[in-house]
Amino acid sequence: MRKAFVSALTERAATDEKVFVITPDMGYSVLDDFAQRYPRRYLNCGVAEQNSIGVAGGLALTGMVPYVYSIIPFVTMRCFEQVRVHAAWMNLPIRIVGIGAGFTYGTQGASHFALEDMAIMRALPNMTVCAPGDPIEARGIIEESFERPGPMYIRLGKSGEPNVHAPGTEVRIGKAITVIDGKDMVLITTSNTLMLGFEMVTALRGKGVDAGLVSMHTIKPLDVEKVLSIARKGIPIVTLEEHSIIGGLGSAVAEVLAESGSSIRFKRLGVPDEYPSIVGDQRFLRSKLGMDTIDDATLRWLMNNGQK
Amino acid sequence: MVNRSGTSHVGSCLSAADIIYTLYFRSMNVDPHRPDDPDRDIFILSKAHSSVALYSTLAERGFFPTSLLETYSQNGGSLTGHLEKGPVPGVEASGGSLGMGLSLGLGIALGKRVQGRKGRVFVLLSDGECEEGSTWEAIMLASTLKMDSLVAVVDTNGLQACGRTNSIIDQRNSAERWRSMNWSVSEVDGHDVDALEMAFKERPNGPHVVLAHTVKGKGVSYMEDRLEWHYKVPNDEQMAIALKELGRGKE
């Protein structure tokens, strides 16, 4: 995903003088190509995230479109109030590009985890929140970001994520993508759990469950119509995200369902309300926290949708 | 405005008023008829609680009708207690949280440089605001970038929200601090408009800071150097005295 982001941005910068990249000293080797080609539109501002957003705000006030790139907690939380005042309140086209979704930096410890970012960013008025699930979605979202008004938060994994979508799949901000249709249940996933969701749905289908998969790469504005269209058919929904179960995709979908009058069964999979006290890589932590499977009891409960 | 709305920071406005006046009437290249001119000089009021001083100056300079000043902090009005960009022309940025303005001004100066635009950027900070770490992040980057179009002005009135600035965070060596970060430093009487104008004319090779020594509540005997006028609102009788002492019929 990171490569897709950098290459799309570098291509665009050749013809779009507004593209500017700021990093608070992150992206070693990743941003080199951009920096060499466009040295006047690249700035390492030092280890100073608050200043990075302030400078981005100033650039945006002069008509530039700055992309601020760093690891998620640093570029969203350390400078959250600058994001609120400069990006959200002034509605400026600042792009906050965070890498390291969820447990990407698994063994590094919770300072580097991104578990609360979608919750806080989606609470900001004017903010578009995108969380692409594979390089195809990442590229599509970056390409749309060049012309989109207002601020954006773009949540990336790291690198090496496989493509789930076929090349040429249309990616539009605010429009969920149905990967697999299902009649028994639908798994809605976001961000870096797209491949995990694909594997889980494939396993369910192997067990005879007609499970579907939807990629919700935009958390805000949420594709409400997609959620409601599933609910109207009475199909149970499971959400999957490598983020706290509080405030992210699961919460956003639950809000829609709760106000829709729907009575479908609904389950959130994600990170429980805790910082894991065990050491492990991404795959290990997902498994340890139980967010990579739907246990049999839950599955039975979901499948008995609407019945006592 | 303050009397009518019942909101204060009047002391902070009076310490900054001469600085803002000098910028808009003597130093900055601005045209109220072209508030979006990309080559204009830009003023960022980082200590955005002094909004009344800026609103009044902008109205007097012709950016919007002075009658709008009556809507300050009124229900349904367009002038917020802390600055908001958008409702009226001339307000360049939203604010109200300290320590953010210098970064923003630096970004604007950088944007102008990259795009080959003219115009300097003036940022007015409070001395209390120099306690914010983010201010120093901007200070360090500005001199690294040799941002000679950036001018910081510090409204050094020596009082902050809860007491004497130097008793809370000792800033008596502030000139040395800025100088050590490779800024050019001028120190002037922040109520001497000629001295301010001279200081703003200086064009050193890198960023420039004007440490403006000011008096909170300047010009009103019962407010001068009194912390409580960060918060208090003059009643009708006090307002009459203040207007008389300030020698004009305006607010």
Task: Describe this protein's structure.
- The complex is a heterodimer of chains A (308) and B (251).
- Chain A folds into 2 domains: 2-155, Thiamin diphosphate (ThDP)-binding fold, Pyr/PP domains (Rossmann fold, 3-Layer(aba) Sandwich); 177-302, Rossmann fold, CATH 3.40.50.920.
- Chain A is built from 12 helices and 12 strands.
- Chain A has helices at residues 2-13, 32-37, 49-61, 72-77, 80-89, 117-122, 135-145, 194-206, 224-232, 249-260, 282-288, 296-303, and strands at 19-23, 42-44, 65-71, 95-99, 128-130, 152-155, 177-180, 185-189, 211-215, 218-220, 237-244, 266-271.
- In chain A, strands 2-1-3-4-6-5-10 form a 7-stranded mixed β-sheet, with helices on both faces. A 5-stranded mixed β-sheet of chain A has the order 7-9-8-11-12, sandwiched between helices.
- Chain B has 251 residues and is an alpha/beta fold.
- Chain B has one domain (2-245): Rossmann fold (3-Layer(aba) Sandwich).
- Chain B has helices spanning 2-5, 10-27, 51-61, 101-115, 133-144, 165-168, 174-180, 193-201, 236-246, and strands at residues 42-45, 121-126, 150-156, 159-160, 163-164, 184-189, 208-213.
